[in-house]
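Propose amino acids for all 486 sites.
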């Protein structure tokens, strides 16, 4: 683990400084807006700012394709000027436009950092822990900065320095290892699971927004400080979620998210009681850290300029909608209505999790059993859609079942030809054969092959390189497509 930190220190620095920037701009915006706007206008503008940052995440692929890395330094210079504008402007219209542009840049830099991290850590067995430590660097530094009573210009200067460092690291890193987008065909088999995943992200974020709106108003009025010690719990939640993802996969991470969300969101019912504010603030901070891991890390293995940041891009508008729903509807209703709405949403989310297999880590297990008994297609030139769909969102949670398989590779006359064509070693051929007949997740596949996970990842990496693929789905598509063409 220590060697991984040394090897990936530049990647973690990029992720940390970028996270610090787009987290801190939001705080700076709240500090600047609070004296200028009433509660309703404040929350409306905050919702607009979240949507604008989401647009930055979504439009990053366009910037990457059109400008490469040329946009990074000019955007950083403009961002620093915008930060000082937030600190000194007093005109409501000008400061609103200024904040919108700053948060749009925050989305661009955040998406670039996520794409870089996904590129560098793809296939790394420590992905969850490394990525959460990188993001945690930004949150911890924000805690340190927020611990001092800084003026707005001083706060803007520190954030600007962080943005400049992000641009410097990102520019040099992009020149050193240019980004290569994923082939579209690799991500296509994941789309059915991805839709359910994004729906869960939206629902979780909407529920989080119910709490977030109340806490934002309390922070703007000076009753609580969300950027002080609760951020330590935010960091602790991220680290916990990263460890769970690495060791137990996406299913256990989903169960953790569901549990901690129910605990933290219950605090919204008691927000009228001042003695409960601090407790709810602490719970919400831990919840936010775990949820951020949920909607980012599982998408990192698929790379590309869009997928790594898609969860955050979807989350932000949903969070804004939850905030507005709480402010303009729930606050006008009796507390019993709030309880009913929350219980309904929590039950809906639990049903989605259980039905999709997220919490159990058994996504599409039934489908895997059917496929084991189906003959191979004779005329199609690719892996059947059913088989491609057996792969769940997490590389640690592929469809399980020791007896399920994609083919009877042991008796396949084309298997030897495939191995000879791509120059596979006997050990690589054995691993390829096991992949063809088993749907076990990678973490359990190592036990069947009697090798360590690290050794298995090394052999898989060699297989991907020789066959021109980058996933087990890609290997299956290459094998079935190649053998059927003969």
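Proposal:
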């Amino acid at each position: 683990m220590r060697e991984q930190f040394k090897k990936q220190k530049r990647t973690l620095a990029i992720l940390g400084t970028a996270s610090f920037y787009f987290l801190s701009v939001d705080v700076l915006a709240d500090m600047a807006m609070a004296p200028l706007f009433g509660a309703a206008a404040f929350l409306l503008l905050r919702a607009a700012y979240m949507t604008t940052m989401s647009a930055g995440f979504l439009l990053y692929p366009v910037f990457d394709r059109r400008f490469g890395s040329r946009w990074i330094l000019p955007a950083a210079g403009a961002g620093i000027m915008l930060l000082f504008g937030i600190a000194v402007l007093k005109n409501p219209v000008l400061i609103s436009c200024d904040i919108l542009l700053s948060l749009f840049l925050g989305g661009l830099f955040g998406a670039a950092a996520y794409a870089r991290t996904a590129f560098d850590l793809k296939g790394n067995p420590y992905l969850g822990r490394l990525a959460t430590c990188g993001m945690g660097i930004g949150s911890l530094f924000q805690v340190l900065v927020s611990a001092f009573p800084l003026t707005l210009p001083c706060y803007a200067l520190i954030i600007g320095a962080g943005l400049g460092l992000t641009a410097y690291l990102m520019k040099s890193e992009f020149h050193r290892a240019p980004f290569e987008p994923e082939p579209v065909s690799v991500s296509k088999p994941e789309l059915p699971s991805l839709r359910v995943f994004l729906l869960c992200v939206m629902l979780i974020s909407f529920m989080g927004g119910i709490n977030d709106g109340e806490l934002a108003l309390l922070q703007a009025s000076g009753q609580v400080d969300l950027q002080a010690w609760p951020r330590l719990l935010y960091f602790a939640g991220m680290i916990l979620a990263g460890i769970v993802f690495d060791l137990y996969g996406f299913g256990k991470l989903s169960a953790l998210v569901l549990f901690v969300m129910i605990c933290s969101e219950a605090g919204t019912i008691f927000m009228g009681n001042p003695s409960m504010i601090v407790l709810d603030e602490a719970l919400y901070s831990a919840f936010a850290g775990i949820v951020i891991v949920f909607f980012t890390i599982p998408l990192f293995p698929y790379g590309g300029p869009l997928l790594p940041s898609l969860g955050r891009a979807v989350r932000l508008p949903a969070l804004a909608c939850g905030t507005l729903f709480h402010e303009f509807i729930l606050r006008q209703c009796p507390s019993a209505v709030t309880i009913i709405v929350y219980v309904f949403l929590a039950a809906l989310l639990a049903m989605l999790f259980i039905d999709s297999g997220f919490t159990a880590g058994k996504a599409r297990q039934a489908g895997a059993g059917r496929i084991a008994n189906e003959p191979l297609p004779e005329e199609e030139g690719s892996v059947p859609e059913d088989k491609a769909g057996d792969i769940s969102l997490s590389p640690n949670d592929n469809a399980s079942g020791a007896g399920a398989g994609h083919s009877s590779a042991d008796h396949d006359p084309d298997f030897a030809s495939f191995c000879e064509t791509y120059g596979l070693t006997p050990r690589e051929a054995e691993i390829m054969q096991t992949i063809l007949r088993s749907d076990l997740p990678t973490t359990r596949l190592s036990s069947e092959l009697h090798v360590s996970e690290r050794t298995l990842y090394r052999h898989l990496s060699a297989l991907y390189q020789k066959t021109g693929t980058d996933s087990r789905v890609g290997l299956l598509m290459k094998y079935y497509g190649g053998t059927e063409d003969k």
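The mean pLDDT is 75. The radius of gyration is 24 Å.
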